[in-house]
Design brief:
Elongation Factor Tu (Ef-tu), domain 3, 18 strands, 3 domains, eight-stranded antiparallel sheet, six-stranded antiparallel barrel, Barnase, Chain D, alpha+beta, globular
Length: 363
């Protein structure tokens, strides 16, 4: 790939089996922006029977549609839920109808439809503690969705089916696509998003180039400060992630995933975790990655990710010893941030690591 390109747009081939390079783009205008506030939606939980009295602030909720035998079929999530009103259920005075307001979690169906002969839904908290059951769910006055965010991909050299569509040689909607940010060598730095192409025009940047208008979710502004630190390759200085807030630290791990190098070292080694900046769970995963794999290292971005990394392919295999220096920083800070979802605590991290046969030495 040409080093002048900062982004690569990929799509599927005709058989939807392999990815194709559709465009190399010099710049992405308006890519970095604060995301719109997610809309708060109102729902009616109809015919509720609860295990105990519900608090007004429910937090993270797990709704599970049930089959005819009362067995859960899947899970559907609401965040930052609050009770707005309750009233007797008109069909069964022993039950209640409850009106709640919440944010619907992303990457899930818009509505959890009941299946045939279903007995209703179960309602649980973030720790899967059962709150109760209800018979049906209704969304009240669906809110207006925010306007899509517009990004301009500038100076694009088009390839394959995208060029054919833009230049009028075929008519078809270009379905699957994703945009990668590239480093100075033209290698993938990080996934930038999933754009929906809505327009194009010849680019003033050169003959044969196009500027594309796309709808896609923006990258947080902090990413504009992170990607340049990876532009020339994996950083050689440790703890560069420490300057960022939790959002930035989580995004630091996006390019780290793409810069894993070297074979797994054998089990039984010792690794030193610099705990001076582990003030949140995101910082722990950044520090753990660097403890195992050096500056810019990656070894999971959540507990499930660490479990996967321990299975091999991420620089080290367990069991091993982890010497956690300045652990008191994490002991004071972890698990106290006012987040919507329950933040992991220091004792929970220790318990998880030891369960995974990592011998943690607190230093």
């Amino acid at each position: 790939m040409t080093t002048a390109a900062r982004y690569a747009l990929w799509g599927e081939d005709e058989d939807h089996e392999e990815e194709q390079l559709w465009a190399l783009c010099e710049e992405a205008e308006h890519l970095f922006a604060d995301p719109p506030e997610p809309p708060r939606r109102r729902y009616e939980l109809l015919g509720c029977a609860f295990e105990a009295e519900l608090p007004s602030a429910l937090g993270f909720l797990v709704l599970k549609p049930l089959d005819k035998n009362g067995e859960p079929l899947w899970e559907w999530y609401l965040e930052d839920a609050r009770v707005l009103a309750t009233r007797p259920c008109a069909r069964d005075l022993a039950r209640r109808d409850v009106v709640i307001e919440a944010v619907r979690s992303e990457d899930q169906p818009a509505y959890p439809q009941r299946v045939a002969l279903s007995v209703g839904f179960s309602l649980s908290d973030i720790d899967d503690g059962l709150l109760g059951h209800f018979r049906d769910l209704a969304e009240v006055l669906p809110v207006e969705e925010p306007e899509p965010h517009r990004v301009r991909l500038l100076g694009c050299s088009l390839r394959g089916p995208l060029r054919d569509v833009v230049e009028g040689r075929r008519e078809r909607r270009l379905a699957y696509r994703h945009l990668d940010a590239l480093d100075a060598a033209g290698e993938v730095l990080s996934v930038a998003g999933n754009p929906d192409i809505v327009g194009w025009e010849p680019s003033p940047r050169g003959p044969g180039l196009y500027d594309l208008t796309v709808h896609m979710d923006p990258q947080p502004p902090v990413v504009a400060a992170i990607w340049p630190l990876w532009r020339e390759g994996r950083p050689a200085v440790p703890n560069l992630w420490a300057q960022f807030d939790p959002t930035g630290r989580a995004r630091w791990l996006d390019p780290a995933v793409y810069h894993r190098t070297g074979p797994d070292r054998p089990a039984g080694g010792t690794y030193h975790l610099d705990g001076r900046h582990v003030t949140d769970s995101e910082g722990f995963f950044c520090a753990l990655g660097e403890a195992v794999n050096g500056p810019g290292g990656y070894f999971g971005r959540c507990l499930n990710g660490v479990s996967d990394a321990l299975g091999g392919g991420f620089g080290a295999t367990g069991p091993f010893t982890l010497v956690w220096h300045d652990h008191e920083v994490a002991r004071r800070c972890l698990g106290v941030q006012p987040l919507t979802r329950y933040p992991v605590t220091f004792p929970e991290l220790l318990s998880f690591l030891r369960e995974k046969r990592i011998d943690v030495v607190l230093a």
